[in-house]
Amino acid sequence: MRTRSIALVFALTAACSGAQRASTTPAFTWRPRSGPAMEQLLNVHRASAPTVSPDGRSVAFLSDPSGLPQPWALTVGADPVAESAWRRLVTDPERVQFVRYAPDGRWLFMGRDHGGDENTQLLRAPASGGAATDLTAAPEVKHLFGALSHDGRWVAYASNARSRGDFDVYVRPAGDEPSAPRRVLEGAGHHEVIDFSLDGRQLAVLHERSNFDQDVLVVDVAAATARNLTPHPTEGDVRYTSPRFTRDGRSLFVVSDRGREHMNLALLDLAAPPPALPRFVLDEAHDLDLLELSPDGATLAAVYNLDGWSQLRLYDVTDPAHPRERARPDVPPGVIASLSFAGDGHSLVFDLSRAASPEEVFGLDVATNRVSRLTRSDHAGIDESALVEPTLERVRSFDGTEVSLLLYRPRDLAPGERAPVVVQVHGGPEAQFTPYFSPVIQYLVGHGYIVAAPNVRGSTGYGKRFAHLDDVALREDSVRDLAAVNRWLRARPDVAADRIAVMGGSYGGYMVLAALTLDPELWAAGCDIVGIANFRTFLERTALYRRALREAEYGSLANDGELLDRISPIHRVDRIRAPLFVIHGANDPRVPVTEAEQIVAALRQRNHRVEYLRFENEGHGVSRRENRIRAYGDVVRFFDEVLGGARAQTPPTH
């Protein structure tokens, strides 16, 4: 899964006057524009995460007309179906995280949490309509939906019911037969179910030690025993994702980077004694981000990552060892986040987002290769031709490493005009900023800001070596990449060099705080959204099931305490010069709200300008539309006050 940057939303109308800079630099001539209002951009509805009925006639998906993602459905026709003709499947006061058709078409499965706490509960509702049944009913437990058997009789999932730090695997009837879930895999660590074998006797399960290190297990459902196919105790990190049983049941398709830079398609022989070495059947100089196998096992859909843009390909895999690419579908350039085949394999549905076009659901006829748009969401009257697509730029960092970034420029910057800049940092760090639709970016650019979205070292999508360049003791090298981006921006003739802000969420929030403390002279403002201020307290208080995964990236409490203290911005808070805006949700299980409150208290004690918004009904991010209106409206007002007004120019330090 890709991790997307938190969207910022709201309308702002405050005018900001220009001012004459000091004689050492050109005049600051920025003027606010009148692009689409943020409230209008916020009210753009989107359709995503589709699932298609076995007969291909109906598609269910998530959309947010109510202000939170909820499940909707439509009947596939010759033309896109307008939002007014969609069918709402469930009305829920909380966000719904996914929706999935059962293979027999009887049921829809969904997941939801409460107030952003990420303790997902699994729901089942009749596909024909009706109330949803809570299958798990354990609000203190996190459940990871896994797979449905091909005959529709069984559902498999993982949960931390036994131990809050470990995820075991369970199987239960998918229908309404009275039966308790049966635990088929118990063990330490993070397990996630991916697929049932065609006969329903086996499960493909991932055992995840970190975001860059996994093993593939095969679980015998009846015997409740497991085999680890890919032990690699001396090889270091090896990634395995997306295991899918081939239709002959002899192998598993997997996506892996074993012995190579990029994630590619391989086969694991189920009869081979462990370790089963992956036999690569596709080899590309790009990461394979998404994989889906048709229910009949004949067609494989793959989404490749080309500098953040998605490329959809279809392969005939009737001979799994020799995939043959079909004619490549003509899909508009953008970002694909999910795929779903119909039961007969004749059609595929997927969502597609572009920087200047919100997510919609599309369909692909596998036989004819015809791509058609299936949904027409309410886009609040936005003229998409007025929105901006980014350009791909590249920056050399302090050690020569190349960092890519997406640059969004106002359309009407006049010659000699210098604009303020917001640098948007993604979370993760094992993630990538991609050219998806972001209301805040489109508002800022329409309002006259330049937005730069870099993929610093540690980002995915650029190979294994690049992703590991920020590990543990190398953590702050990624912050040095941000400084290199800042200096590159300062050298541009369209940038107001003393008016560059940095904004990010989650790990991106840490990057904001780290940038303000390591290079305080470079940044004019910061916005930290659900970010880490103190790695020691973060690891002590994050949800127990996440600690081991995060320690693999940042360092452990037991062995790396000195390092964790050294890289924690809270211990350099006296170096911060720039005004700061902080946002956090009280129910955040990933980065506890105490991280925000530490940095806010430390800055207030120093009488430093810091603004803070805490939301009692949010978790790791801001999901509810009314909260986003308030939060990000204030953020843009803050940026306008700090970056857009007249103030004395100091010559760039570097």
Concise overview:
With 654 residues, this protein is α+β, with helices and mostly antiparallel strands. 15% of the residues lie in helices and 33% in strands. An 8-stranded mixed sheet has the order 31-32-34-33-35-36-37-38, sandwiched between helices. The protein has a 4-stranded antiparallel sheet with strand order 1-2-3-5, with no helix packed on it.
List its traits.
single chain, Rossmann fold, 33% strand, Neuraminidase, disordered C terminus, alpha+beta, 10 helices, 654 residues, 8-stranded mixed beta sheet
Mean pLDDT metric? 91
CATH topology of the largest domain: Rossmann fold
Q: What is the β-strand count? A: 38
Overall helicity: 10-25%
Under CATH at level 1, the class of the largest domain stands as: Alpha Beta
Distance between the ends: 38 Å
Q: How can the largest sheet be summarized?
A: 8 strands, mixed
Task: Tell me what portion of residues adopts beta-strand conformation.
Answer: 25-35%
Task: Categorize the overall geometry.
Answer: globular
Domain unit count: 2
Q: Please identify, by name, the CATH architecture of the largest domain.
A: 3-Layer(aba) Sandwich
Structural class: alpha+beta
CATH superfamily of the largest domain: Alpha/Beta hydrolase fold, catalytic domain
Integer-rounded radius of gyration: 25 Å
Number of helices: 10
As residue ranges, the low-confidence spans are 1-26, 646-654
* Major β-sheet strand ordering: 31-32-34-33-35-36-37-38
